[in-house]
Write a structure and sequence with these properties.
By secondary structure, the protein is an alpha+beta fold. It is built from 6 helices and 16 strands. It has 2 domains: 107 residues, no CATH class; 127 residues, Electron Transport, Fmn-binding Protein, Chain A (Pnp Oxidase, Chain A). Strand 9 and strand 10 form a beta hairpin.
Length: 287
């Protein structure tokens, strides 16, 4: 996802390997289970907007022309949508106001588990660390991500052009939610972080000692697409420090489907989610 309002999706291809002009008129992005019957869990019909060429790659930007979610029965799905609409009318104070179609497409996007990582960035006089999950790998050399243009980190990265991206272990997931307040800060005091840090290999940017993986990146392209600023960055270094279960985010519709399929325990899953979002460090294994 490259932007939330208007909802903009990015698909990357090797140069001259992307869809033809005729194919661009009828593309559909499908989300399928990886095992079992490989059932289709959701679909987003794509409407081509523009393409971006960069170092042998082509980045195709799309808007949504349709969206379908198959994770829960259609009647229950529309009951949820009615509740959403009522809640939206009562609390219509959000800065981002996607259309009904865009909301449904974003729900489908989060059928695919999205990693929640921590971004570290420093300039000569400022620095910050904050969580991010609107992002994705292009290939081993390039990475793309988006940040709210109205928030300070987007402009900090635009000035620094360098960052360190750190994975978050599931057991340390509470820290990611605690640091969400840093999206509203121009700079932080590194000594006030609730954990120790180390320095990245080349840029000497602080990152959490608990990170399984840290990647240093250099921003090469910046695009303002609406509510979000879209960044395309080159990976300068990629260090795997340890292994374990990482923190990911999924939509509740997909979580419901996953728990039904695996006969999981709802109470345990809800407790896990609540403990992390409440800022409680989790000590046992996830469901």
């Amino acid at each position: 996802m490259a932007c939330a309002d208007p909802l903009t999706l990015c698909l990357a291809f090797s140069e001259n390997q992307g869809p033809s002009e005729k194919e661009l008129e009828r593309l559909t992005l499908k989300f399928c289970e990886q095992d079992g019957k490989q059932r289709v869990l959701g679909e987003i019909g794509l409407k081509f907007v523009e393409s971006i060429a960069l170092n042998g790659r082509e980045f195709f930007l799309f808007k949504a022309r349709s969206a379908a979610n198959y994770c829960i029965p259609k009647l229950r799905l529309w009951a949820h949508y009615l509740l959403y609409e009522r809640a939206h009318k009562l609390t219509n104070n959000t800065e981002i106001k996607p259309s009904f179609l865009e909301k449904r497409a974003m729900e489908v996007m989060f059928i695919c588990p999205r990693p929640v990582s921590l971004v570290s960035v420093i300039t000569d006089v400022q620095g910050n660390m904050f969580p991010m999950n609107v992002m994705g790998d292009i290939d081993s050399d390039y990475f793309a991500f988006a940040l709210r243009d109205a928030k300070m980190p987007a402009h900090l990265i635009e000035g620094a052009r360098r960052l360190a991206l750190s994975s978050v272990p599931f057991e340390q997931g509470s820290f990611a939610y605690k640091l969400a307040v840093n999206h509203n800060k121009q700079s932080i005091n590194w000594y006030e972080l609730p954990f120790e840090t180390k320095k990245s290999k080349n840029f000497q940017i602080p990152f959490p000692v608990f990170a399984y993986r840290v990647r240093e990146m250099e921003v090469e392209r910046i695009y303002r697409l609406g509510s979000h600023t879209f960044f395309i960055a080159r990976v300068v270094s990629d260090e795997s420090l340890s292994k374990g279960i990482e923190l990911f985010a999924v939509h509740g519709f997909y979580e419901a489907w996953r728990l039904r399929k695996s006969n999981g325990k709802w109470s345990s899953a809800l407790a896990d989610d609540a403990s992390i979002k409440a800022g409680i460090t989790y000590k046992s294994s996830p469901v």
